[in-house]
Amino acid sequence: MRTILYVKERMPCLMPLLGIIMFSAASGSSASAKERITLKRDDQAGRLSVQIDGQEILAYQYSPLFDLPHYWPLNSPSGKNMLTQMAIPYPHHRSFWFADTVRVPGSKTASFYNALYSGTGGKQNPFKPYRAPFGNQIVHTGFQKLKTDGDVAVIESTLVWNIDKKPILDEQRTVRLHALPHDEYLLDMTFSLTAAYTDVEFVSDKVHYAWPYIRINKNFNGQTGGGVITSDSGQQGQKKTDGQVAKWIDYSRKTEGMAVYQWPDGQDHRWLTREYGCFGPRRPDKTSGIPFTLKKGQSLRQRVGILVHQGDVKSGRVAERYQQYIQGKL
């Protein structure tokens, strides 16, 4: 197992050392020739690029200039970006992100889904968009692990949710990426939130949140891109899938697309789906669309799989691969 880090630093004196590190990683054992995944980290830009066989498949955007970390682009097997980083008329839609609406004692309600609007600038001047500093912001604080091993990479990071620069929630995020044949891949992701500082009340409504939230772009969505929303029960389209219980939802064109798998936790999860491109699972019903309090020291956890595949829901074998995913065989 090894780590590949390409880091841009402001101090040129570090470059010879980095060159030695990169050379050592590239010239290790013969097993290194089988490595398919490369992680390119640029802390100055706040960007972690993930590449399979030399081609970027996604990037983790963690610059403090953003209202929250997110994933963009996220590419299909043919190399086409499937997501939109800032949608119109919903610029707070951040491609592929994880957020919520909360309240803490002595503070007003803070919507991290709408954290963009807590910045300076704004709608009153479309040529001067919202920008840092943000009153509500999710901040990436560091990587705990960046590892590659053959067809698998592991990315562990920590984040903190701030209201007016005061920490409210700590987040641990783990991404286990599997490079599959035929330019397909799987992201096995776990998000864990801990009320490390005070009690936190979650006040999300039943309509405007998902864990995580994904925004398909116009070239892949159901309105203009030929994308079809399909649930594990065979229901299709927003009207038959939005707010309904499902184990997974697939959003695909005839040639390629993505499926989001809800990890089985013994509870039903309803889904948000939109023909214009949004979709994602919600929390279990007992903590979804109903205010509840996460006591200090308590945690919430959500695990999902994201399969980026060739073909549509049938030719991409989405149902079969869901079973492989939950059995640890994918």
Can you walk me through this structure?
With 330 residues, the chain is mainly β. The protein has one domain (79-326): Beta-galactosidase, Chain A, domain 5 (Distorted Sandwich), CATH 2.70.98. The chain contains three helices and 20 strands. The strands form four sheets. An eight-stranded antiparallel β-sheet has the order 8-9-10-11-20-16-15-14, covered by helices on one side. Strands 1-2-3-4 form a four-stranded antiparallel β-sheet, with no helix packed on it. Strand 3 and strand 4 (70-74) form a beta hairpin. The longest helix is centred in the N-terminal third of the chain and has 12 residues, at 15-26. The relative contact order is 0.13. Mean pLDDT is 89; it is low at 1-32.
Blueprint (SSEs and pairs):
Layout: H1 15-26, E1 37-42, E2 47-52, E3 55-61, E4 70-74, E5 96-97, E6 101-103, E7 110-111, E8 136-149, E9 152-163, E10 166-179, E11 185-194, E12 200-202, E13 213-215, E14 228-231, H2 238-241, E15 248-252, E16 256-262, E17 269-273, E18 278-284, E19 292-294, E20 299-310, H3 318-326
Antiparallel strand pairs: 1-2, 2-3, 3-4, 5-13, 6-7, 6-12, 8-9, 9-10, 10-11, 11-20, 12-19, 13-18, 14-15, 15-16, 16-20, 17-18
Listing every helix as H and every strand as E from the N terminus to the C terminus, the arrangement reads: HEEEEEEEEEEEEEEHEEEEEEH
How many domains in all? 1
CATH top level class name: Mainly Beta
Outline type: globular
CATH architecture title: Distorted Sandwich
Largest sheet: 8 strands, antiparallel
- The portion of residues assigned to helices is under 10%
